Amino acid sequence: MIELRSDTFTLPTAAMREAMSFAAVGNDGYREDPTVLELEQRAADELGKAAACLTPSGIMANLAGLMTHLPRGGSLLVGDESDIYRHEHGGASICGGLVYHPVTTAPDGTLPLDALRAALAETAGEPRLICLENTQNRCGGKPLPLSYLDAVRELADEHGARVHVDGARLFNAAIATGVPAAELVRGADSAQFCLSKGLSAPIGSILAGDADFIAGARRVRTMLGGTMRQAGVIAAAGLVALDTMVDRLADDHRRARKLAEGLAGVPGLELDPAEVVTNIVLFDVTVGTAQDFIDAAARAGLAVLSPGGLKVRAVTHSGTTDADIAAAVAAAAVATADLVGAVR
Ligand SMILES: *Cc1c(COP(=O)(O)O)cnc(C)c1O
Questions:
Q1: Could you tell me the CA-to-CA distances from 282 to 75, 107, 336, 337 in Å, in that order?
Q2: Quick check: is 321 in a domain?
Q3: Distance 168 CA to ligand 1 centre (A)
Q4: What is the pLDDT, as a whole number, of residue 126?
Q5: Do 301 and 188 reside in the same domain of the chain?
Q6: Residue 84 CA, ligand 1 centroid: distance in Å
Q7: How many other C-beta atoms are found inside a 10 Å radius of the C-beta of residue 133?
Q8: For residue 3, is it within any domain?
Q9: 51 and 199 share one domain
Q10: What are the pocket residues of ligand 1 if the criterion is a CB atom closer than 6 Å to any ligand atom?
Protein backbone atom coordinates (compact mmCIF):
# COMPACT_ATOMS: atom_id res chain seq x y z
CA MET A 1 0.00 0.00 0.00
CA ILE A 2 1.31 3.45 -0.91
CA GLU A 3 0.54 5.50 2.19
CA LEU A 4 -0.30 9.11 1.32
CA ARG A 5 -3.04 9.83 3.88
CA SER A 6 -0.75 11.89 6.07
CA ASP A 7 2.85 12.74 6.89
CA THR A 8 2.09 11.46 10.40
CA PHE A 9 2.65 7.96 8.98
CA THR A 10 6.39 8.68 8.85
CA LEU A 11 8.51 6.21 10.80
CA PRO A 12 11.50 7.12 12.98
CA THR A 13 14.77 6.82 11.06
CA ALA A 14 17.54 4.41 12.05
CA ALA A 15 19.52 7.37 13.41
CA MET A 16 16.53 8.34 15.57
CA ARG A 17 16.16 4.84 17.00
CA GLU A 18 19.87 4.76 17.76
CA ALA A 19 19.77 8.21 19.44
CA MET A 20 16.69 7.20 21.42
CA SER A 21 18.32 4.07 22.77
CA PHE A 22 21.41 5.90 24.01
CA ALA A 23 19.76 9.17 25.10
CA ALA A 24 20.79 10.65 28.44
CA VAL A 25 17.57 10.96 30.43
CA GLY A 26 16.29 12.33 33.72
CA ASN A 27 13.02 13.48 35.25
CA ASP A 28 11.67 16.23 33.03
CA GLY A 29 8.97 17.01 35.60
CA TYR A 30 11.90 18.33 37.67
CA ARG A 31 13.60 19.84 34.55
CA GLU A 32 16.37 17.27 34.94
CA ASP A 33 16.25 15.53 31.57
CA PRO A 34 19.34 16.79 29.72
CA THR A 35 18.12 15.66 26.29
CA VAL A 36 14.78 17.45 26.70
CA LEU A 37 16.59 20.59 27.85
CA GLU A 38 18.88 20.38 24.82
CA LEU A 39 15.98 19.91 22.39
CA GLU A 40 13.98 22.76 23.92
CA GLN A 41 16.92 25.17 23.66
CA ARG A 42 17.72 24.01 20.14
CA ALA A 43 14.11 24.43 19.06
CA ALA A 44 13.83 27.86 20.69
CA ASP A 45 16.96 28.92 18.78
CA GLU A 46 15.55 27.58 15.50
CA LEU A 47 12.47 29.72 16.03
CA GLY A 48 14.34 32.77 17.30
CA LYS A 49 12.47 32.64 20.61
CA ALA A 50 13.84 32.74 24.17
CA ALA A 51 12.32 29.46 25.34
CA ALA A 52 10.45 26.36 24.24
CA CYS A 53 8.51 23.51 25.76
CA LEU A 54 8.18 19.92 24.48
CA THR A 55 4.63 18.56 24.39
CA PRO A 56 3.30 15.12 23.42
CA SER A 57 1.34 16.53 20.46
CA GLY A 58 0.64 19.58 18.34
CA ILE A 59 -2.87 19.81 19.70
CA MET A 60 -1.52 20.07 23.22
CA ALA A 61 1.10 22.63 22.17
CA ASN A 62 -1.66 24.76 20.60
CA LEU A 63 -3.97 24.33 23.59
CA ALA A 64 -1.30 25.13 26.17
CA GLY A 65 -0.31 28.17 24.10
CA LEU A 66 -3.86 29.46 23.70
CA MET A 67 -4.67 28.97 27.39
CA THR A 68 -1.47 30.73 28.42
CA HIS A 69 -2.20 33.75 26.23
CA LEU A 70 -5.81 34.31 27.21
CA PRO A 71 -7.92 34.25 30.38
CA ARG A 72 -11.33 32.56 30.37
CA GLY A 73 -13.70 34.48 28.14
CA GLY A 74 -10.86 35.68 25.92
CA SER A 75 -11.39 35.74 22.16
CA LEU A 76 -9.66 33.48 19.68
CA LEU A 77 -9.61 34.80 16.13
CA VAL A 78 -9.15 31.56 14.19
CA GLY A 79 -9.48 30.53 10.57
CA ASP A 80 -12.71 28.69 9.79
CA GLU A 81 -10.55 26.14 7.95
CA SER A 82 -7.87 25.95 10.65
CA ASP A 83 -6.89 22.83 12.54
CA ILE A 84 -7.54 24.66 15.82
CA TYR A 85 -11.13 25.39 14.79
CA ARG A 86 -11.94 22.22 12.86
CA HIS A 87 -9.95 19.37 14.31
CA GLU A 88 -9.07 20.04 17.95
CA HIS A 89 -12.44 19.11 19.45
CA GLY A 90 -13.15 22.53 20.93
CA GLY A 91 -10.37 22.17 23.50
CA ALA A 92 -9.76 25.90 23.81
CA SER A 93 -13.43 26.38 24.66
CA ILE A 94 -13.90 23.29 26.83
CA CYS A 95 -10.62 23.45 28.74
CA GLY A 96 -9.82 27.15 28.53
CA GLY A 97 -13.22 28.85 28.43
CA LEU A 98 -12.08 30.72 25.32
CA VAL A 99 -14.51 32.00 22.69
CA TYR A 100 -13.92 31.09 19.04
CA HIS A 101 -14.38 33.83 16.44
CA PRO A 102 -14.03 31.99 13.13
CA VAL A 103 -12.61 34.16 10.36
CA THR A 104 -13.08 33.14 6.71
CA THR A 105 -9.93 31.49 5.38
CA ALA A 106 -8.86 32.64 1.90
CA PRO A 107 -7.86 29.96 -0.64
CA ASP A 108 -4.21 30.98 -0.18
CA GLY A 109 -4.41 30.02 3.51
CA THR A 110 -4.38 33.58 4.85
CA LEU A 111 -7.04 35.22 7.00
CA PRO A 112 -7.66 38.39 4.96
CA LEU A 113 -6.60 41.54 6.83
CA ASP A 114 -10.04 43.10 6.31
CA ALA A 115 -11.73 40.11 7.91
CA LEU A 116 -9.26 40.19 10.81
CA ARG A 117 -9.83 43.93 11.21
CA ALA A 118 -13.59 43.35 11.40
CA ALA A 119 -13.16 40.57 13.98
CA LEU A 120 -10.85 42.79 16.04
CA ALA A 121 -13.42 45.61 15.95
CA GLU A 122 -16.14 43.20 17.04
CA THR A 123 -14.11 42.03 20.03
CA ALA A 124 -12.70 45.44 20.99
CA GLY A 125 -11.81 45.68 24.66
CA GLU A 126 -11.46 41.92 25.12
CA PRO A 127 -8.19 40.00 25.35
CA ARG A 128 -7.65 38.65 21.81
CA LEU A 129 -5.37 36.14 20.18
CA ILE A 130 -5.02 35.82 16.40
CA CYS A 131 -4.17 32.26 15.32
CA LEU A 132 -2.53 31.66 11.95
CA GLU A 133 -1.71 28.28 10.39
CA ASN A 134 1.52 27.85 8.41
CA THR A 135 1.46 25.85 6.24
CA GLN A 136 -2.33 25.88 5.94
CA ASN A 137 -3.33 22.23 5.78
CA ARG A 138 -6.91 22.40 4.50
CA CYS A 139 -5.93 24.90 1.78
CA GLY A 140 -3.48 22.36 0.36
CA GLY A 141 -0.41 23.10 2.47
CA LYS A 142 -0.12 26.74 1.47
CA PRO A 143 2.83 28.58 3.04
CA LEU A 144 1.97 32.09 4.25
CA PRO A 145 4.06 34.93 2.78
CA LEU A 146 6.39 36.78 5.17
CA SER A 147 4.87 40.12 4.11
CA TYR A 148 1.44 38.86 5.20
CA LEU A 149 2.77 37.55 8.52
CA ASP A 150 4.40 40.92 9.23
CA ALA A 151 1.17 42.74 8.28
CA VAL A 152 -0.78 40.64 10.79
CA ARG A 153 1.76 41.54 13.49
CA GLU A 154 1.26 45.21 12.70
CA LEU A 155 -2.51 44.85 12.83
CA ALA A 156 -2.28 42.96 16.14
CA ASP A 157 -0.16 45.74 17.62
CA GLU A 158 -2.68 48.37 16.52
CA HIS A 159 -5.40 46.49 18.39
CA GLY A 160 -3.46 45.16 21.38
CA ALA A 161 -3.90 41.56 20.25
CA ARG A 162 -1.43 38.68 20.41
CA VAL A 163 -0.48 36.28 17.63
CA HIS A 164 0.02 32.50 17.74
CA VAL A 165 1.26 30.51 14.76
CA ASP A 166 0.14 26.91 14.46
CA GLY A 167 3.17 25.82 12.49
CA ALA A 168 2.57 22.07 12.54
CA ARG A 169 4.39 22.15 9.17
CA LEU A 170 6.39 25.34 9.74
CA PHE A 171 9.58 23.86 8.30
CA ASN A 172 7.71 22.92 5.13
CA ALA A 173 6.79 26.60 4.89
CA ALA A 174 10.40 27.63 5.49
CA ILE A 175 11.73 25.28 2.82
CA ALA A 176 9.05 26.24 0.29
CA THR A 177 9.49 30.00 0.74
CA GLY A 178 13.23 30.01 1.35
CA VAL A 179 12.59 32.08 4.51
CA PRO A 180 14.10 30.68 7.73
CA ALA A 181 11.55 29.45 10.29
CA ALA A 182 12.69 32.10 12.78
CA GLU A 183 11.83 34.83 10.28
CA LEU A 184 8.42 33.32 9.59
CA VAL A 185 7.52 33.52 13.30
CA ARG A 186 9.32 36.77 14.14
CA GLY A 187 5.96 38.53 14.41
CA ALA A 188 4.37 35.79 16.50
CA ASP A 189 4.19 35.85 20.29
CA SER A 190 4.21 32.06 20.19
CA ALA A 191 4.56 29.28 17.66
CA GLN A 192 4.03 25.55 17.60
CA PHE A 193 5.60 22.99 15.29
CA CYS A 194 5.28 19.21 15.04
CA LEU A 195 8.30 16.93 15.20
CA SER A 196 6.02 14.04 14.27
CA LYS A 197 4.88 15.05 10.77
CA GLY A 198 7.30 15.59 7.88
CA LEU A 199 10.20 15.74 10.34
CA SER A 200 9.44 12.06 11.01
CA ALA A 201 10.00 11.82 14.75
CA PRO A 202 7.60 9.36 16.40
CA ILE A 203 6.19 11.75 19.04
CA GLY A 204 6.26 15.38 20.02
CA SER A 205 5.70 19.02 19.29
CA ILE A 206 7.37 22.21 20.37
CA LEU A 207 5.77 25.38 21.72
CA ALA A 208 8.08 28.40 21.67
CA GLY A 209 7.80 31.95 22.99
CA ASP A 210 9.36 34.29 25.53
CA ALA A 211 10.56 32.95 28.88
CA ASP A 212 7.56 34.08 30.98
CA PHE A 213 5.14 32.74 28.41
CA ILE A 214 6.82 29.33 28.33
CA ALA A 215 6.91 29.20 32.14
CA GLY A 216 3.14 29.71 32.07
CA ALA A 217 2.72 27.16 29.29
CA ARG A 218 4.60 24.59 31.38
CA ARG A 219 2.01 24.99 34.16
CA VAL A 220 -0.81 24.50 31.65
CA ARG A 221 0.99 21.52 30.15
CA THR A 222 1.14 19.91 33.60
CA MET A 223 -2.54 20.65 34.16
CA LEU A 224 -3.37 18.99 30.85
CA GLY A 225 -1.37 15.93 31.84
CA GLY A 226 1.35 16.59 29.30
CA THR A 227 4.41 16.78 31.55
CA MET A 228 6.44 13.65 30.95
CA ARG A 229 9.28 12.04 32.88
CA GLN A 230 12.24 10.44 31.06
CA ALA A 231 11.13 12.18 27.89
CA GLY A 232 14.71 12.33 26.63
CA VAL A 233 13.96 9.19 24.62
CA ILE A 234 11.47 11.29 22.65
CA ALA A 235 13.59 14.42 22.60
CA ALA A 236 16.55 12.47 21.19
CA ALA A 237 14.51 11.65 18.09
CA GLY A 238 13.45 15.31 17.90
CA LEU A 239 17.07 16.45 17.85
CA VAL A 240 17.86 14.03 15.01
CA ALA A 241 14.76 15.32 13.22
CA LEU A 242 16.00 18.91 13.39
CA ASP A 243 19.49 17.85 12.35
CA THR A 244 18.64 15.57 9.46
CA MET A 245 15.03 15.90 8.32
CA VAL A 246 14.51 19.60 7.56
CA ASP A 247 16.39 20.16 4.30
CA ARG A 248 15.05 16.93 2.80
CA LEU A 249 11.48 18.33 2.98
CA ALA A 250 12.34 19.79 -0.43
CA ASP A 251 12.19 16.21 -1.78
CA ASP A 252 8.67 15.82 -0.39
CA HIS A 253 7.66 19.06 -2.10
CA ARG A 254 9.19 18.03 -5.41
CA ARG A 255 7.41 14.66 -5.25
CA ALA A 256 4.10 16.30 -4.32
CA ARG A 257 4.34 18.52 -7.42
CA LYS A 258 5.20 15.48 -9.55
CA LEU A 259 2.21 13.65 -8.10
CA ALA A 260 -0.02 16.65 -8.80
CA GLU A 261 1.16 16.78 -12.40
CA GLY A 262 0.43 13.09 -12.80
CA LEU A 263 -3.00 13.29 -11.18
CA ALA A 264 -3.94 16.31 -13.30
CA GLY A 265 -3.66 13.99 -16.32
CA VAL A 266 -6.07 11.42 -14.88
CA PRO A 267 -9.64 11.75 -16.23
CA GLY A 268 -12.07 12.27 -13.37
CA LEU A 269 -9.62 14.18 -11.18
CA GLU A 270 -9.22 17.95 -11.13
CA LEU A 271 -6.44 20.08 -9.70
CA ASP A 272 -3.94 22.77 -10.61
CA PRO A 273 -0.41 21.40 -10.08
CA ALA A 274 0.95 24.96 -9.84
CA GLU A 275 -0.93 25.29 -6.54
CA VAL A 276 1.14 22.52 -4.98
CA VAL A 277 4.20 24.08 -3.35
CA THR A 278 4.67 21.97 -0.22
CA ASN A 279 3.86 18.32 0.55
CA ILE A 280 0.06 18.36 0.35
CA VAL A 281 -1.90 17.65 -2.84
CA LEU A 282 -5.62 18.44 -2.79
CA PHE A 283 -7.79 17.43 -5.71
CA ASP A 284 -11.44 17.18 -6.70
CA VAL A 285 -13.11 13.99 -7.83
CA THR A 286 -15.56 14.57 -10.69
CA VAL A 287 -16.73 10.98 -11.09
CA GLY A 288 -18.56 9.48 -8.10
CA THR A 289 -17.92 10.72 -4.58
CA ALA A 290 -14.63 11.27 -2.81
CA GLN A 291 -15.33 8.16 -0.74
CA ASP A 292 -15.94 6.11 -3.92
CA PHE A 293 -12.54 7.22 -5.19
CA ILE A 294 -10.83 6.55 -1.85
CA ASP A 295 -12.26 3.02 -1.75
CA ALA A 296 -11.30 2.32 -5.37
CA ALA A 297 -7.81 3.77 -4.81
CA ALA A 298 -7.37 1.53 -1.76
CA ARG A 299 -8.25 -1.51 -3.90
CA ALA A 300 -5.58 -0.33 -6.36
CA GLY A 301 -2.97 0.01 -3.59
CA LEU A 302 -3.13 3.73 -2.78
CA ALA A 303 -4.19 5.17 0.60
CA VAL A 304 -5.55 8.74 0.52
CA LEU A 305 -8.27 10.51 2.52
CA SER A 306 -10.95 13.16 2.18
CA PRO A 307 -10.83 16.36 4.20
CA GLY A 308 -14.49 16.85 3.25
CA GLY A 309 -16.76 17.39 0.24
CA LEU A 310 -15.52 16.13 -3.12
CA LYS A 311 -11.92 16.79 -2.13
CA VAL A 312 -9.24 14.17 -1.66
CA ARG A 313 -5.87 14.73 0.01
CA ALA A 314 -2.53 13.06 -0.66
CA VAL A 315 0.53 13.93 1.43
CA THR A 316 4.11 13.07 0.54
CA HIS A 317 6.66 12.34 3.26
CA SER A 318 9.98 10.69 4.06
CA GLY A 319 8.53 7.25 3.32
CA THR A 320 7.54 8.27 -0.22
CA THR A 321 9.85 7.41 -3.14
CA ASP A 322 9.88 8.52 -6.79
CA ALA A 323 8.64 5.04 -7.69
CA ASP A 324 5.74 5.52 -5.26
CA ILE A 325 4.69 8.66 -7.10
CA ALA A 326 4.53 6.87 -10.44
CA ALA A 327 2.68 3.95 -8.82
CA ALA A 328 0.27 6.33 -7.05
CA VAL A 329 -0.66 8.03 -10.33
CA ALA A 330 -1.18 4.62 -11.96
CA ALA A 331 -3.35 3.50 -9.02
CA ALA A 332 -5.42 6.70 -9.24
CA ALA A 333 -5.98 6.04 -12.95
CA VAL A 334 -7.11 2.47 -12.23
CA ALA A 335 -9.41 3.81 -9.50
CA THR A 336 -11.12 6.42 -11.67
CA ALA A 337 -11.45 3.93 -14.56
CA ASP A 338 -13.19 1.66 -12.05
CA LEU A 339 -15.58 4.45 -11.10
CA VAL A 340 -16.34 5.41 -14.72
CA GLY A 341 -17.08 1.74 -15.35
CA ALA A 342 -19.39 1.68 -12.31
CA VAL A 343 -21.23 4.83 -13.47
CA ARG A 344 -21.84 3.29 -16.89
C1 LIG B 1 -1.44 17.84 12.74
C2 LIG B 1 -1.78 19.25 13.04
C3 LIG B 1 -1.96 19.70 14.35
C4 LIG B 1 -1.97 18.77 15.53
O5 LIG B 1 -0.83 18.02 15.73
P6 LIG B 1 -0.91 16.62 16.50
O7 LIG B 1 0.51 16.33 16.82
O8 LIG B 1 -1.53 15.66 15.55
O9 LIG B 1 -1.74 16.82 17.73
C10 LIG B 1 -2.19 21.03 14.55
N11 LIG B 1 -2.27 21.88 13.52
C12 LIG B 1 -2.11 21.50 12.25
C13 LIG B 1 -2.18 22.50 11.15
C14 LIG B 1 -1.87 20.16 11.96
O15 LIG B 1 -1.72 19.77 10.68
A1: 31, 12, 16, 20
A2: yes
A3: 5
A4: 95
A5: no
A6: 8
A7: 31
A8: no
A9: yes
A10: 57-59, 62, 83, 133, 137, 166, 168, 194, 196, 205
Using the atom order of ligand 1, give the atom closest to the CA of residue 196: 7
Read off the DSSP letter of residue 143. P
| Cβ atoms of residues 195 and 7 within 8 Å | no
59 C-alpha vs ligand 1 centroid, how far in Å? 6
Q: Which tens digits make up the pLDDT trace of 190-238?
A: 999 999 999 999 999 999 999 999 999 999 999 999 999 999 999 999 9
Domain identity same for 269 and 127:
no
Q: Both 71 and 152 in a single domain?
A: yes
Report how far residue 198's alpha carbon sits from residue 171's, in angstroms, rounded to the nearest whole number: 9
Q: Please indicate, yes or no, whether the overall pTM of this predicted structure exceeds 0.85.
A: yes
Residue range(s) defining the domain that contains residue 190: 8-244
Tell how far the Cα of 173 is from the centroid of ligand 1, in angstroms: 15
Per the structure, the count of domains in the chain is 2
137, 142, 305: which to mutate for ligand 1, most atoms within 8 A of CB?
137
* Cα 39 to ligand 1 centroid, rounded to whole Å: 19
Percentage of the chain with pLDDT > 90? Answer: 97
| Distance (Å) of CA 251 to CA 138, 152, 203, 319, 330 | 21, 30, 22, 11, 20
What is the CATH number for 339?
Answer: 3.90.1150.10
pLDDT of 86 over the 80 cut: yes
Q: Which residue's CA is the nearest one to ligand 1's atom 8?
A: 58
Q: Are residues 34 and 178 in the same domain?
A: yes
| Alpha-carbon gap, residue 167 to 181, rounded angstroms | 9
Q: Are residues 119 and 149 in the same domain?
A: yes
Same domain, 219 and 283: no
